[in-house]
From TrEMBL:
Pfam families: Snf7 (PF03357)
GO biological process: vacuolar transport
Coiled coil: none
Organism this protein belongs to: Furnarius figulus
Stated name of the protein: CHM1B protein
Gene3D superfamilies reported in the protein's UniProt record: 6.10.140.1230
Amino acid sequence: EHLFNLKFAAKELNRNSKKCDKEEKAEKAKIKKAIQKGNMEVARIHAENAIRQKNQAINFLRMSARVDAVAARVQTAVTMGKVTKSMAGVVKSMDATLKSMNLEKISALMDKFEHQFETLDVQTQQMEDTMSNTTTLTTPQNQVDMLLQEMADEAGLDLNMELPQGQTGSVGTSVASAEQDELSQRLARLRDQV
């Protein structure tokens, strides 16, 4: 029952993410119309709404993935419980086999499994902390300006607004690339610790 509820929640979050994607596209269409009419204030409001919808879609998708991961872990635990019961039944009926089993190896294997599970919990917590620290609910002004320019370009119109100097896509890309490299290095260090 809990497993079903978790899977249902993950699907619901995924649906909400798609809904936000649709609303973002609708806001972008409204931006184009406002720019064509020359109403920059309304275009800016729609741009802020589009950015906010995009961020919400990402957050819903992220939460869906996290809930889905929990559901998978619950499913694994349920399956492991069933397998353990089956194994217990087999062991009881096969005393001779039990005597020949190396209990030290079984114990060592279970210890290793528990250690890996704990490591997974630590890594999951670190990933969640990182995601929550980087997630913002504000709409950065440079994203709004870039979206306005993009919508004006798609509409084939000249947008008479001054963007801050030095704002290019390559700078944003290099910053994102540097952040990605740092995250990759941290993940490699975590793997080495295991």
